[in-house]
Design brief:
It contains four helices and no strands. By secondary structure, the chain is an all-alpha fold. The chain has one domain. The longest helix is centred in the first third of the chain and has 35 residues, at 2-36.
């Protein structure tokens, strides 16, 4: 049992590292894709902009903790807190707005570049599947958080009594 759990844990952490690297590169790929195909979706011209802005916002959220504005005494600068808050408010609003862009353009024409119904296949499919993946991940993350909170509340707290002699 010990070996199997060690392999599972080691494999899980390796997988976790790989997923973290892939997820950190995803915003860059989305930004490049949105910028490259900025004018390649006449059916819904906001789809590439949705990817571009969403990628930049996600990249900012990822890099913000790295370059978090701290003073020498360790206190967070107020303007950094405000920018972080605004970004956290903006992202869900932009996601919902982008969902409207993507789903109203459902089933674009991928063949005829000169058609008003045209949208570049890779551009639209990436936007469509990323949006779907986020809608699947939100309830899963909420369930995980609820389960974690429930488990933490069920574990009895250890009591430590220090006596003075």
């Amino acid at each position: 049992m010990g070996f199997a759990s060690d392999v599972l844990i080691a494999g899980g952490s390796t997988c976790s590292v790989r997923m973290s690297i892939l997820l950190s590169l995803l915003p860059v790929v989305i930004i490049v894709l949105g910028a490259k195909h900025l004018y390649d979706c006449p059916k819904q011209p906001m789809v590439p902009i949705y990817l571009l802005v969403g990628g930049v916002a996600c990249l900012c959220l990822q890099t913000f903790p790295i370059f978090y504005c701290r003073q020498s005494d360790g206190k967070v600068i107020l303007i950094c807190r405000i920018l972080n808050f605004l970004l956290l408010v903006f992202c869900p609003i932009w996601f919902i707005t982008g969902s409207v862009f993507v789903y109203t353009a459902y089933r674009p024409n991928y063949e005829s570049r000169w058609s008003a119904e045209y949208c570049e296949r890779i551009l639209y499919e990436v936007a469509f599947w990323i949006t779907n993946a986020i809608y699947v991940m939100i309830p899963l993350l909420l369930l995980c958080q609820c389960y974690k909170t429930w488990c933490e509340n069920r574990v009895p707290k250890k009591c430590c009594i220090n006596t003075v002699s």
